Amino acid sequence: MQLDLRPNVWVFIAAINGFLAVFAGAMGSHTFASHLDEHALTLYSQAADYQMSHALALAFTGILLNHAHEKNKDLVHLAGFGFSIGILLFSGSLYWLALNGSGSLGSFHYIPPIGGISLLFGWFMLIIANFKTLMADKK
Questions:
Q1: How many C-beta neighbours within 10 Å does residue 56 have?
Q2: Number of domains in the chain
Q3: pTM of the full predicted structure?
Q4: Distance from C-alpha of 135 to C-alpha of 126, rounded to nearest angstrom
Q5: Could you give the CA distance from residue 5 to residue 75 in angstroms, rounded to a whole number?
Q6: Which domain holds residue 67?
Q7: Kindly report the CA angle at 1 between 64 and 83, in degrees rounded to 5?
């Protein structure tokens, strides 16, 4: 089987997030480092790390989509949605907290855990898609 690297929406979103994660990391190291306390820098760095690692997960999701059995493509798309929403909510809220201080989310304090659950959802959808493929291959 040859690796199918055709571009698709998840690879496109992955590339954007990879770019933004590198940019955010550079801003954290060079621009914000002298203005933020240690806790804020840790949050900021964690946000960039999660954004980059899940940008890579999105790229993998896009490649997997090109190889998925037709009946599993919906699960792979759900994984992409989970990763995308998770990056936005989890990493986005950590960037916000790092730059604006703890408690700055106010009544939106539930956003980081919802983002984390979205990331977990993305991974779970990949597990299910892979499991269904493994079971289909055994028949």
A1: 14
A2: 1
A3: 0.92
A4: 14
A5: 19
A6: 38-138
A7: 5
